[in-house]
Amino acid sequence: xxxxxxxxxxxxxxxxxxxxxxxxxxxxxxxxxxxxxxxxxxxxxxxxxxxxxxxxxxxxxxxxxxxxxxxxxxxxxxxxxxxxxxxxxxxxxxxxxxxxxxxxxxxxxxxxxxxxxxxxxxxxxxxxxxxxxxxxxxxxxxxxxxxxxxxxxxxxxxxxxxxxxxxxxxxxxxxxxxxxxxxxxxxxxxxxxxxxxxxxxxxxxx
Length: 206
What we know:
With 206 residues, this protein is α+β, with helices and mostly antiparallel strands. It is built from eight helices and five strands.
């Protein structure tokens, strides 16, 4: 039995029509048959209403029927991806979509969506804790170096800059006023950097 945060769709890959659907996707098969549109058209109509904008590309890459057929042709029968979906209460929840492709008389795809919000958020919190400096709330050295190396490999670095800041007389502050006061200096300096730079910039503590 499906919960209020899960659903399924069965799609004929030859005709592109939704054969059956249930759960949070329950209305799509009926609507498609009533107005005579297939899965691809249905996806275009509803994606902006239910999927977080940052996840549009991932959604399209994994649920475009031509890509589904190509992946099946290349030997893939099952795969998963994750997205954030708008729920009835106005909140977005992390969901996992499982795709399975079958070949009988016709090829068809079964899409199954399930709620993974609690697990995903717990994982993201653990990931953040492992990559952030607990005192200043900026990246720790390992995460910062990995991010910079990845940026250098994947991006056009002609228009970028690497800035290193050294706080003058910081050792004196620690020695004369104590490490608690030194920690406060680091926190305040980190806040200044976070406010001064863009969210897309990398800020880390060495």
